[in-house]
């Protein structure tokens, strides 16, 4: 799913008609020395340096497009942000353009010049244009200027559905089919339960992992996949009745040291994998999507907040209101009434360095109620003893690993440590801890 930047769910918005063009497979279609394009581009077969050479050459195309964008020859995709408009993977090039005649002419000139210099000439018949929120007039302009097939949107690219909103179960049904299609090739009748268990853990449960890293998989899709896995484990076929299942599925999906069989719980694995994007958004500024507001479910954000904390240095990269940099927790938890009164935009941007200089008092509106006023004095008392370390950068840490770096494994196992139940609902208090431990152990 495309990350949302505005309320209507599309990232590429600005003045005029909100629409974007996508081009795929801008690559040479000719033969080189009698070798088909799919086997080589500009290299000798089996040459170990050829992939690196191809990457170096395609980087020139990327730089040409970025140069045209930076000097204003290509229309900006949005009023602010969204600097990256090209993605290159193997022999596929995806470029986002506004449906403008000038943009199309500039882009056509770029790929022609690139082809003349490199020998990688573009076959427009093998390209495709995907219109995102474009009008029928835009479609006519695209067909006339680019002379390539126009295919409908949404679509699948690199194994993932590209949509403007959360993918529906029908769009992700291919995952269910991939799991089901594995079964006919296995002679399940010749395998005992232990053999089928290994196939489940090593193969069937691993099929949706790639999609779960990027998408919030609907519960209906995960249930359909688990139904197939459950049937194969207990009876060696696709469908089974409830009486054939020897142990409740939620116990089967617990880790081995919690009394389960170690089969991944797909719902919880999806949550743990999605937390990776929030981690990379905080620690890696080189990502091209760093400027976007990454959308994740609330339960993923709760897991991320429970796992991370900041060690203060100069306070320049730690968020004052939302990060855990005080021993007692986040200010949104310490002073919930006061935090709710602060504008959301300020909450997302205020850094500790600015806050300790007194800016946090400017964030608070004057019309506070009695609970918020009490929290105001409590926060002020906590800030008195906080001291920054000049010349030392803040350290953002994942608290569930020894090296303080994110891992899906630690996030997944943490959800069995009495932090959430099997459906991702967070438990709190000693009673919740006891019930969860009893649930898995007996």
The main sheet comes to:
5 strands, mixed
Q: Compute the gyration radius: what is it? A: 26 Å
| Strand runs, count | 9
Structural class: alpha+beta
Residue ranges: pLDDT <50 for 5 or more in a row? 1-46, 418-442
Spatial strand sequence of the major β-sheet: 2-3-1-4-5
- Kindly state the mean pLDDT as a whole number? 78
- Helical content band: 40-55%
Relative strand content: 5-15%
H and E order:
EHEEHEHEEEHHHHHHHEHHHHHEHH
Secondary structure tally, helices: 17
Distance between the termini: 40 Å
Question: What form results from the Cα inertia axes?
Answer: flat
Short description:
By secondary structure, the protein is α+β, with helices and mostly antiparallel strands.
Can you tell me about this structure?
This protein is an alpha+beta fold. The chain has a 5-stranded mixed β-sheet. A two-stranded antiparallel sheet has the order 6-7. A hairpin with a 2-residue loop joins strand 2 (86-89) and strand 3. The chain contains 17 helices and 9 strands.
Question: What's the structural blueprint in terms of helices and strands?
Answer:
Elements: E1 20-24, H1 50-70, E2 86-89, E3 92-97, H2 101-118, E4 128-132, H3 136-146, E5 150-151, E6 155-157, E7 160-162, H4 173-182, H5 193-202, H6 209-214, H7 219-235, H8 249-252, H9 266-283, H10 298-307, E8 308-311, H11 331-334, H12 336-341, H13 344-349, H14 352-363, H15 370-383, E9 395-398, H16 408-419, H17 429-441
Parallel strand pairs: 4-5
Antiparallel strand pairs: 1-3, 1-4, 2-3, 6-7, 8-9
List keywords for this structure.
disordered N terminus; 9 strands; alpha+beta; about 45% helix; two-stranded antiparallel ribbon; disordered C terminus; single chain; flat; about 450 residues
